[in-house]
Amino acid sequence: MHLDPAVISDLTRSVRPERWVRVMPARHKTTQLGAGFGSSRWSSPTDAFKVIYIGQEIDASISETVIRDRFEALPPTDRKLNLSEITSWAITEIRCQETLKILDLTGSGAFRLGLNTDAVGARAHEAGQAFSEVLHADFPDLDGIMYPSRLTRGRCIAVYDRSIKRCLEADPAIGLERVPSLGMILSDLSITLIDDLS
């Protein structure tokens, strides 16, 4: 895969997120900036690097990590989420102590680079992973990728592990169920929160 350096340069932004959020399994809430190998949109298919994901808005972060595609083709009356599942997730606020150099794919960037449209928008991750692998190797000054959530269209950033410790800081994580606006956020996503713990 050839990536035009001139286009990469033109799509590179300096960003300094403040109060973005990361949703993670509650078992990892004491390692808020921890990263592991796994299969996700921008992860390495060869385990060459790790990434963490942060979202500008909480609804995008919850949708991308907790909800995913489970309610596809279901009417709103059937979109229900148990509180017992919510308690298995935690959330933290992320800020930057150093500006990130990010490839911006929120607009026409993917088209300009000639990427397979699946890289940014598909449920499957293979195209995004292949692109990220080349980007990480060929452009070592980049800290990550900004992209639109395919579920809410909110802005998200995948931060490469080489930049996590240098650039990011995290507040102590809390259980996702402790977010005061959780019920309203889920309602706005046409999801009913069921208290199955009472």
The unreliable regions are none
Task: Classify the secondary structure makeup into a structural class.
Answer: alpha+beta
C-alpha Rg (nearest Å): 17 Å
Profile the largest sheet: 5 strands, mixed
Count of domains: 1
Find the count of extended strands (DSSP E, 2+ residues).
11
Q: Helicity range of the residues?
A: 25-40%
How many DSSP helices?
8
Structural shape? globular
Q: Overall pLDDT, averaged?
A: 94
H/E topology pattern: HEEEHEHEEHHHEEHEEHE
In which order are the strands of the major sheet placed?
1-6-7-8-3
Classify the beta-strand content into a percent band.
25-35%
N-to-C CA distance: 54 Å
Notes on the structure:
By secondary structure, the chain is α+β, with helices and mostly antiparallel strands. It has one domain (5-194). 29% of the residues lie in helices and 25% in strands. The chain contains 8 helices and 11 strands. The chain has a 5-stranded mixed sheet. Strands 2, 5, 9 and 10 form a 4-stranded antiparallel sheet that branches. Strand 7 (144-148) and strand 8 (155-160) form a beta hairpin. The longest helix has 13 residues, at 126-138. The mean pLDDT is 94.
